[in-house]
Specification:
By secondary structure, the protein is α/β, with parallel strands linked by helices. It folds into 4 domains: about 140 residues, no CATH class; about 140 residues, PGBD-like superfamily/PGBD (Muramoyl-pentapeptide Carboxypeptidase, domain 1, Orthogonal Bundle), CATH 1.10.101; about 200 residues, TIM Barrel (Alpha-Beta Barrel); about 230 residues, no CATH class. The protein is built from 27 helices and 8 strands.
């Protein structure tokens, strides 16, 4: 909502200074950084500083200190100078008087209130405006709680401001009740000051001097004074519910909980490692991790070196698009066998570039999900493996909202569409991991905490679901076993994979190339016409439309075929054939099933003639009955081939929660689920069709299926009898057409 006085402030700075400071601001009555930049430039102009800058830096501060150490009614140099202060007060939410150039009682009262909100009213008593307060006035920081800020954090912010504001390099931090990078760095300054570091030496960096000093300042139950204040401040900023003050029993309990969460030895004492984990994202980098990751092949000698060093989990990359850079980044042939042989476990990471915001998009998410899944299958990772998708740059919060979250939502949606064969994790800074996980797009986090200066790490807490905490790069082993790794702390939430599928003797199918679409369409539709199965008066879709639908589901079909080690042509053939035969009579039967279970006709069936209630029908692209779908899914779930809930195929209660209807309606409405079910029906057929008219089990669909096995599964999919046998013979050439193009693409 526009504010009339902010609008007047904007008009003032534009009219008086616009031509002098090289910028104007939008006159919309809304406080913004541009408005604050303009007021900062106006101040610099009045101080005689050149060149002008958006930043209230050291030159502005030192000049202001030397000329006007205290601004008030008696020291104000000019009316416009005062109007800058009044305008800034209004932009900050305080009464600035009438923007009339007078440092009135109203202005003085607002300045006094501002200093009290900042917590510096003891250090800077009275109603004069001091340079550091002026600096805090000309930014977008809040000095009252906003957006559900914490009163406890605000109290810490005010305490630090009041205690340290007169130190050279300590500047007033926001008092908004939220942790931030500025607050985190200011806490380090406070610690350095208490360690006795002089102005100019203290730098807000967790360096050797700070680390050495903290090792001499453990805090425990009974410790009083400034050090437990600093320690409990660090705890509260890390979202730990402890009282701000002396080290009490309640603080000890909070410390124990934090140590357990962060993977530290639980002592209940504020020792150096606990200090370090509270103050900087990487914590104590001398900690020994159980996990590592790197871009170097794990050879037997390196595997032994890692094992001797106490490592259990190894992060390796699924893919490297470069053929020259980091030649061993992608998992190498035989490497997973070595990892398994030496008792290690592997966690797969997917990253191509992912180092700038322009990489992330919905389309890229879908592409990366498919490529990562295909690569995971190629390397031998089993279903249920968690893949960590990378955000390997300092994504600011607005980029997370606009780019990273949609990217991960796309990964999640694509993985769901393909049957959720793999779990999704995220690699990245703390804030990115936390936000993506909170949105439900990743279930564990691999945190890039080595980059302590990232805006997404500094001022943010370790994600609740952290699995691996990357803290330092180091070298392990010697000679042929020497290897450089990133050392990671493991929480136990993810233990990677220790067993892998052997590489298939034949190549797995890959995604369809649209360059072959027209040729495949001509050949497949032409074949259907040649055998008298072209469009008829009862058909709903043309043969071309049916094929286009199958190709639109190529990602699902490809993923399903790769998951079960079968040829995608087998799925394509049954799905295309059945969809070509979907006609008006089938729609009528589908309407009857909906009527039976819900008691009403769905909108799409209201105009159909003679709809009669029925318990089941062959439905969807693959023309699968609800009963058959349940039997097929139950078969695969029991065999460990699929995840899901066992359903009762005999549950045909005339109500929407009946198991038969739950399966049937999903087969009707979810094309991706339907074509995945086609593959499971084919597996069930090969297993002998348990629960139906059973047949002799045969080998499950495989990459090297013989013509006889292909024919038998195609026949069993349709059923028994002469019609099923003759149609299966007609489908064999169709299978050959699909396989012809699939083979060309996978062998290219």
């Amino acid at each position: 909502m526009a504010d009339e006085m902010v609008l007047r402030a904007q008009k003032f700075v534009n009219q008086v200074y616009g031509s002098k400071i090289g910028m104007t601001v939008t006159e919309d009555g809304r406080t913004s950084w541009n408005t604050m930049y303009a007021l900062t430039r106006a101040l610099q102009y009045e101080l005689g500083i050149s060149p002008l800058s958006d930043t209230f830096g050291s030159t502005t501060l030192s000049t202001l200190k030397s000329k006007y150490p205290k601004l008030n009614a008696s020291t104000m140099p000019s009316a416009d100078f005062c109007r800058i202060i009044q305008s800034a007060l209004y932009c900050k939410g305080y009464d600035g008087g009438g923007i009339d150039g007078l440092y009135s009682d109203r202005v003085a009262s607002s300045v006094a209130t501002l200093k009290a909100n900042m917590g510096v009213d003891s250090a800077f008593s009275g109603s004069s405006l001091e340079p550091k307060v002026f600096k805090g006035l000309l930014n977008m920081d809040a000095y009252v709680t906003v957006n559900n800020g914490s009163d406890a954090i605000r109290g810490i912010q005010q305490w630090m401001n009041g205690r340290y504001v007169n130190r050279q390099d300590f500047f007033i931090v926001p008092c908004d009740g939220h942790h931030s990078r500025d607050v985190a760095k200011s806490l380090l300054y406070a610690i350095q000051y208490e360690l006795g570091m002089a102005d100019g030496t203290a730098n807000g960096v967790f360096g050797p001097g700070t680390q050495s000093g903290l090792k001499n300042h453990p805090v425990a139950v009974g410790t009083t004074g400034t050090w437990p204040l600093l320690f409990t401040a660090a705890m509260i900023l890390n979202k730990r519910t402890v009282p701000f003050g002396n080290f009490t029993g309640d603080v000890k309990a909070g410390v124990e909980a934090f140590q357990s969460f962060a993977g530290l030895t639980v002592t209940g004492v504020g020792d150096f490692r606990t200090w370090a984990s509270l103050l900087v994202s990487y914590g104590d980098q001398s900690r020994k991790g159980e996990a590592c990751d790197g871009v170097t092949k794990i050879t037997p000698a390196r595997a032994q070196a890692l094992k001797d060093a106490g490592y259990k989990y190894v992060g390796r990359y699924l893919y490297n698009p470069s053929t020259t850079s980091l030649p061993e980044k992608e998992i190498q042939p035989g490497e997973l066998d070595t990892i398994k042989q030496y008792g290690l476990r592997c966690l797969p990471i997917y990253q191509t570039w992912a180092r700038s915001v322009d990489y992330y998009s919905v389309a890229q998410g879908a592409t990366d999900c498919m490529n990562a899944s295909y690569k995971a299958e190629q390397h031998g990772f089993k279903p249920g493996t968690r893949i960590y998708f990378a955000v390997d740059y300092d994504a600011v919060d607005e980029e997370v909202t606009s780019y990273v979250l949609p990217y991960f939502r796309s990964i999640r949606d694509q993985m769901d569409r393909m049957g959720s064969q793999f779990k999704i994790g995220i690699y990245g800074p703390r804030n990115v991991c936390s936000r993506v996980s909170a949105a439900g797009y990743a279930d564990t986090s691999f945190v890039s905490d080595m980059s302590s200066g990232f805006s997404g790490n500094l001022g943010y807490t370790l994600p609740d679901n952290w699995a691996f905490d990357q803290i330092v790069t180091k070298s392990v082993g010697s000679g042929g076993g020497a290897i450089e790794i990133d050392n990671n702390i493991a929480s136990g939430r993810d233990t990677g994979q220790g067993d892998f599928r052997p590489a298939p003797a034949q190549k797995l199918d890959i995604g369809f190339s649209l360059s072959y679409r027209d040729a495949l369409t001509d050949e497949a539709t032409g074949y259907m016409a040649s055998i008298g199965r072209g469009e008829g008066p009862t058909n709903i879709y043309t043969r071309k439309q049916c094929l286009e639908t199958i190709l639109s589901l190529d990602d699902v079909i490809t993923s399903t075929a790769r998951r079960y080690g079968m040829r995608k042509a087998l799925i394509q053939t049954s799905a295309f054939w059945e969809f070509c035969h979907y006609g008006r009579e089938d729609v009528n039967k589908d309407g009857g099933v909906a009527l039976y279970y819900t008691g009403v006709l769905p909108d799409w069936a209201k105009d159909l003639p003679g709809v009669e209630a029925a318990q089941d029908s062959s439905t969807g692209i693959g023309q699968v009955q609800g009963r058959v779908g349940i039997l097929a899914w139950n078969n695969s779930i029991r065999a460990g081939l699929a995840d899901g809930t066992i359903l009762d195929p005999t549950d045909v209660r005339p109500r929407p929660d009946a198991d038969r209807y739950k399966m049937w309606i999903r087969l009707l409405q979810d094309n991706a689920f339907n074509v995945r079910t086609v593959a499971l029906v084919q597996i069930w057929c090969a297993d002998g069709k348990q629960g139906d008219v059973e047949e002799t089990p045969q080998r499950r669909p495989a990459l090297d299926y013989t013509d006889g096995e292909i024919y038998e599964v195609l026949r069993r999919y349709q059923g028994f009898g002469g019609q099923a046998e003759s149609d299966a013979k007609l489908r064999m050439p169709l299978y050959a057409i699909f396989e012809k193009y699939n083979r060309i693409i996978r062998e290219a």
